[in-house]
Amino acid sequence: MGAHRQSDDTALIGRAHECDLVRAVLDALPDSGRVLHLSGGPGSGKTALVRFAAQAAAQRGIPVLSVTWAPAERDLGHAALHGLLHPLLPHAVALPGAERAALASAFGEDSTEPESTVLARAALMLITRAPGPVLVCVDDLDRLDPASRDTLRAIAHLCRDTRVGIIITERADPTGPRPTDAAVGPLPKDVLTAALSPLPTPHARDLVRRRGRARAHTEEELVLAVARGNPLALTELSLSGNGLREAAGFGMLPASPRLADAYADDLGALSARGSGVLLTAALSTSPLVREIVDAGTRLLGGVQHARAGLDEVVAQGLVTEENGHLRFTQPLLRVAALHREPATRRMSAHAALGDSIADPARAAWHAAQCATGTDEELAQRVEALAAGPWPDTALLVALAALDTAARLSPDPERRADRLLRAAELACHYGLGEQARQYARGIDPAELGDLGRAMLLWLHDLLPGNPPVGAERIGQLCAAAGSVAASQPELARKLLHAAAGRCWWEQAAARERDLVVDTLKGLRTPPWKPRELAALALTDPLSISHVPLRASEPPTPDEQLILGQVAHLTGDLERSGELLEAAERAARASGRHGRLPHILGARALGEIWRGAQWQTAHAMADEARTIATRLRLDNYGARATGAQGLIEALQGHHDKALERAAAIEGASRHLGQGQHLNLATLTRVLTASGSGRYADAYTQLRSSFTELTTPYSFQQFWGLAFFVEAALPAGEAEDARTVVKEIADRTKSGRAPLLRQILAYADAALAPDEEAEHRYRAALDGDIAQWPLLHAMTRLSHGVWLRRRRRVVESRAPLTVAESLFRSLGATSRADLAASELRAAGHTDTGPDQDSPVTALSPQQRTIARLAADGLTNRAIGEQLHLSARTVASHLYQIFPKLGVNSRAQLAERTDLH
């Protein structure tokens, strides 16, 4: 059971040691027979290892004989041995008389019981009639009929001097000690042994992803928590099917038929009293022995029956009593027990538990499982189980409680409210399919204004919903106005959703103004976090000066929302702190649905704040992976944009352009123009990184045609690269106009990064007589906290100094710039800084002294290298601030010095870099 092969079907996940033992048995076969004994609990992968052994033997051309238990044959003497030897029985006539008679007696030709050692010798003689080695696989030895079990153990003692290898599996507690000679019974002392322990978390996760049924990130985490490393459970458990059902009441997932069958042997041997107590204990939301016994008494009709049943299940090792609490030795046995019992029996046990458990909410859960109508009082008691926090698998309890309370609700509005809460909770935890199931349970025809507003909010919350256009913004604002008096928090959520649509879709001023006017018509400052978020999404400049205050201590919701506000207004330092705290809270609580939002924003911020971009790229990659699994396509596209920006800055231009194309495709699919900003910036950085500054400037110039949009924070990001491209593109005067307009518009409040970008722009575009002072101002203060901008400013300063023939002075800023760019991984910009250094007379290891390249000046060497890299004369001129004609003149002198006649020959030289 519990096969868990890797995709290449040649090994088992997390069972490398056991597979090596199988290979050791096969490797020994040409010379001698070895025995391997594998023990483990239900679903631990014993059968998978037997199958692996059979496949490995077949690949070596070794014949395989195998047998496993069959329930109907358990009481038939020698039935398993007969099944094992059946293909060989026609050859029994060639055996010596005593051995042939032993086989005949064992298989019913006469009534005499054969002597066990003679029968074992006969079976082994029959097996060894094959000309080569043979592998015998015995699965679940302990469950075979006793006669076969004894004979197979005797065979194991005899195979040492043969070419017969034997692999035996038996059931055992996988959490117990490693088997000893006594534990494996009368097997040879040199037997190889392995106890199949639960899979470690990395292997368990790998198995779920390769072979499991979990479809979402959080579902995967729930499966890992419930399965506890059991391979069969890892591949069988999921949230799919008809709801969470009763198992969710105690924080577990329902068993599949296959998983339940794995425990059938443990459950089938119980008496009616033992089964009754086990069912009661399995269903109970209370672990108290006295409450379980009381419920068992009600179910079985007497305390003596309940006590006897409890003693039986304890004696069988299925449960233990510790300090008045009952604990299942194998937690999966609990859900398997439920699967075997009919609904009427389970309902009877629930009714008994509802009358026996003292805790009102837990008692209500059991009573609700038996309820056939509506009952608001009961619904309220059950709903109390949904109160947070929800560590580990407590999320299942909360969702099941809200769903059950909704089913019991007589009022459609209360029913909708409870399903809305369940759907919202499911969305936050990344369980989109469960959220949609709750949404389908709401009937719009039964709802008033409040219910319809809830449903509207829910539709906007669900992942994977198709775009519905700008009219939805008006609907969300109208709904917020209709419920603001009675449900102010719902009104804030609706306006936050409307503002989010404005931002993602790059809505026109009319829609943005509608959101702002609706908010200001309902509320006045000071703004609450969600209200600040709505303004940040629609009019960020209006709140750029507003301090971000949270409660003390801040809640995870406040950290996330205020982190979003800080991010949208360009305060990346503050947003980094808040979003990092929000990420920790999301991971600790299992709210994986929030991670794509948080990680994508953090990755974008780290492009400016980080000293190494590998961290930012890893964040973006995780955000994109989780978003894909959760169908959060908008956040997936945004994370792809962050990766594209980083790759463009690192000089991986082909990959960056692939990202840009993917973002543009996602933008069309989603109907969200917001993504195009990142695609454009990725293409701009690719152009500037390739020396095509004029192209970069032209592409970015269109982003600054309308500075009244709420997307200015991304325009501010692009401003630094806009200025970087302006000088080599010959557009300094036009760039000054744009920078002045941005500076005028942001006088009321500027985030630290924007202040530093404007200082960089002020210096880079300054007239010569003012540049020195402005560069000094730009490089003072806290520029070091922005490594990318620091490097850009140093490079610009160094280039300015060199162009003014202050060559010696230029080397220091250029050296710093190259070092910073290289530490970030910005290869193309680091190479540019290195070229400027060489042009400034900086000496390095350089080419071999015998190379003709030594005849070139530093500037000619830089031009030759750029030409060899494929840049046009115009692109080289833009990088080096030369005219295309001057570049051509230099190349005219370079070619004969290097003995080449074309750019193609120049590209073949290896001594230019």
Helix content: 55-70%
The strand line-up of the biggest sheet is: 2-3-4-1-5
Radius of gyration: 37 Å
Alpha-carbon distance between the termini?
Answer: 60 Å
Could you tell me the number of beta strands?
Answer: 7
* Mass-distribution shape: flat
Question: Would you tell me the overall average pLDDT?
Answer: 87
Poorly predicted tracts of residues: 5-10, 173-184
| Structural class determined from secondary elements | mainly alpha
User: Count of helical segments?
Assistant: 45
The percent range for strand residues is under 5%
Q: Main beta sheet: strand number and arrangement? A: 5 strands, parallel
Structural account:
This protein has 913 residues and is mainly α. 62% of the residues lie in helices and 4% in strands. It contains 45 helices and 7 strands. It has a 5-stranded parallel sheet with strand order 2-3-4-1-5, with helices on both faces. A two-stranded antiparallel ribbon has the order 6-7. Helix 12 crosses helix 13 and helix 12 crosses helix 15. About 2% of the residues have low confidence.
